[in-house]
Amino acid sequence: MSWSHAVLLFAAGILGGLTGSIAGLASVATYPALLLAGLPPVTANVTNTVALVFTGVGSVWGSRPELAGQGTMLRRMLPFAAVGGVAGAALLLSTPADGFEKIVPVLLAFASLAILLPVRPPRDVGTPTRRRHVTALTVQGLAVFGICIYGGYFGAAAGVLLLALFLRLGGETLAHANAAKNVVLGIANGVAAVIFSIAAPVQWGAVVALGLGCLLGGRLGPMVVRHTPDRPMRVLIGIAGVVLAIKLGLDAYR
């Protein structure tokens, strides 16, 4: 790998780490950079997933204040994320991409619109019954599982889907929902990366250059969310997600 490609990937990693830790859009910056560096699509995809592990490390490191008090919820969601990441990696290595790619723009557009819509405080319906509580946890876990399958498979904007889920179901602020998203997506990326490291053509030189940038950008992203007004940031994330959904839709259906 040439020095110019290394610099390109490092810069793309910083941008990807920032956008990934803020909005779950890291692959919008990192994946095209890997293609520009000369990697074929499948190699670029698996290399991208491995490098994005560093975004997860940096973003969780930077999100520690917002993660306080979320341990119980995250411990319940992480098994769903891990199994989903494994399933997504296996799907990538064993099946053609056409069918899955066609539904992703629809999911992303829906999630982006969900982020743009205001979150209303939940109505007081009394103390939830155990059955209702278990049902809510099951639905949330299955949703995390489905999103993390996509995260392990390709991952472009999987974070937007998770962020929308946590905002709509958790009733948290953007910063708290974003912190939870960073942990869950980090686990899904991590288990997929382990599989790709063993069974896929990862380009390790590109991982180093891209990953260092992702670590720096991922560390800075939560600081941006923490000090930015909630509503404008949600609008920017939502609009970026809609734009990406349109681009992915044009790529998938043309």
Automatic annotation (TrEMBL):
<feature type="transmembrane region" description="Helical">
    <location>
        <begin position="103"/>
        <end position="121"/>
    </location>
</feature>
<dbReference type="InterPro" id="IPR052017">
    <property type="entry name" value="TSUP"/>
</dbReference>
<keyword id="KW-0813">Transport</keyword>
<keyword id="KW-0812">Transmembrane</keyword>
<dbReference type="Pfam" id="PF01925">
    <property type="entry name" value="TauE"/>
</dbReference>
<feature type="transmembrane region" description="Helical">
    <location>
        <begin position="33"/>
        <end position="57"/>
    </location>
</feature>
<feature type="transmembrane region" description="Helical">
    <location>
        <begin position="233"/>
        <end position="250"/>
    </location>
</feature>
<feature type="transmembrane region" description="Helical">
    <location>
        <begin position="78"/>
        <end position="97"/>
    </location>
</feature>
<keyword id="KW-1003">Cell membrane</keyword>
<feature type="transmembrane region" description="Helical">
    <location>
        <begin position="142"/>
        <end position="167"/>
    </location>
</feature>
<keyword id="KW-1133">Transmembrane helix</keyword>
<feature type="transmembrane region" description="Helical">
    <location>
        <begin position="187"/>
        <end position="212"/>
    </location>
</feature>
<dbReference type="GO" id="GO:0005886">
    <property type="term" value="C:plasma membrane"/>
</dbReference>
<comment type="similarity">
    <text>Belongs to the 4-toluene sulfonate uptake permease (TSUP) (TC 2.A.102) family.</text>
</comment>
<dbReference type="InterPro" id="IPR002781">
    <property type="entry name" value="TM_pro_TauE-like"/>
</dbReference>
<keyword id="KW-0472">Membrane</keyword>
<protein>
    <recommendedName>
        <fullName>Probable membrane transporter protein</fullName>
    </recommendedName>
</protein>
